[in-house]
Amino acid sequence: xxxxxxHKILKPLLFTTFIVGCFVIGFLMYYKPSTGWLNHLLxxxxxxxxxxxxFTKKNESSNSKNLIPQISPEKKEKNKTVIxxxxxxxxxxxxxxxxxxxxxxxxxxxxxxKKLYNKSHGVFFHHRDIHRDxxxxxxxxxxxxxxxxxxxxxxxxxxxxxxxxxxxFNLTVNYHQDSTVxxxxxxxxxxxxxxxxxxxxxxxxxxxIVSNWxxxxxxxxxxxxxxxxxxxxxxxxxxxxxxxKQDFHPTISSCKxxxxxxxxxxxxxxxxxxxxxxxxxxVPVVLGTTxxxxxNFVQGDAFIHVDDFKSPKELADYLHLLDKNQELYLAYFKWxxxxxxxxxxxxxxxxxxxxxxxxxxxxxxxxxxLIKWYWG
Length: 376
Ligand SMILES: *[C@@H]1O[C@H](CO)[C@@H](O)[C@H](O)[C@H]1NC(C)=O
Ligand SMILES: *[C@@H]1O[C@H](CO)[C@@H](O)[C@H](O)[C@H]1NC(C)=O
Ligand SMILES: *[C@@H]1O[C@H](CO)[C@@H](O)[C@H](O)[C@H]1NC(C)=O
Ligand SMILES: *[C@@H]1O[C@H](CO)[C@@H](O)[C@H](O)[C@H]1NC(C)=O
Description:
Elements: H1 3-30, H2 37-50, H3 73-76, E1 81-85, H4 98-103, E2 108-111, E3 122-126, E4 147-151, E5 171-174, E6 181-182, E7 186-190, E8 204-209, H5 218-226, E9 232-235, H6 245-253, E10 255-261, H7 272-280, E11 283-287, H8 291-294, E12 304-305, H9 312-324, H10 326-330, E13 339-343, H11 348-360, H12 370-375
Parallel strand pairs: 1-2, 1-3, 3-4, 4-5, 5-6, 8-9, 8-10, 10-11, 11-12
Antiparallel strand pairs: 7-13
Helix pairs in contact: 5-9
The chain binds 2-acetamido-2-deoxy-beta-D-glucopyranose (4 copies).
One 2-acetamido-2-deoxy-beta-D-glucopyranose (NAG) is lined by residues 145, 147, 167-168, 170, 364-366.
């Protein structure tokens, strides 16, 4: 082959091959298969090689042969009910797959990522975190399908009454039985299988742990009278005897009676002050809403109500009587044969239950007069 032939034929041929090659490489670099055999092949090979399904997020740095584009969180949440937690500290923007694992509630995507606002089916607001002038609520217009969720677990006495919260929310999540979604502080649920309740060792008669001391509170007035007639072991910040986390439960269970005195008296406002001693094998002496109201939540023979007595002295006399009569005392634990206490998990359970509600109830709904309903 002469050099002339090379210049005339081979050179253009090599040049053309080079150009076509560039196109092919460019095409393969930028073409993202969407459907069809290539995509199937890629998915298949991927699932065979690392056992993940296509929706599993892969470790970017370790997977160099990652031929499938990452599935974005937006895709993942596509078929789910999205609840955006607007006003609770999350510390993380990442997806929380808690509803299914912790509460058996399927189809919910709980997020704190405010970029998902326009796609969120529900936006969740913790009352205590709402600014008085509502300045920290979303600024963007509310999508027509979106529901705003008002969540509060404090009693009306201890919740700021914010002007401007009427006609804003579509559902309430609260301990109150008339809430759209009721989440109490605790529930009495069946024990299965039955277990034998064993009374913990007791070396104290009456105990009380309290941090928030307000002389105007009914509970403080009652305590002052009661302690004249019976020995009460007191703990907590109010008495300069702080109880650490690890001592909290053992302290309560070492007492025969515990003063489950609520900070304020409101219908359905029954807190962990009742459920802690109930679950720890201590008889609660309650001060709060009426006995009848307590009995909506807890067996009537599981607790003692201060209203059952004409005076703190009479209550003290009765507690002394129970102290000397083990049979009478043990009658307060009869319910334990078939039931136990279930606690509820602050805010995650509330968010998941709100999501569950939204999935089941598509109808239009507005909470008009939240202020009147909650504060009366
Ligand atoms: C991803 O892979 C890198 C390198 O193999 C490893 O150091 C890292 O811990 C992995 N990260 C996760 C989240 O698995
Ligand atoms: C999306 O949800 C609907 C109803 O909840 C279900 O029938 C459907 O199979 C789901 N689709 C996907 C892709 O998961
Ligand atoms: C939501 O959509 C509105 C337009 O309807 C837009 O102005 C706003 O920036 C969007 N917000 C977010 C967080 O994407
Ligand atoms: C939710 O409440 C707002 C404010 O009252 C109302 O404008 C909106 O239409 C309601 N949305 C739904 C889906 O019920």
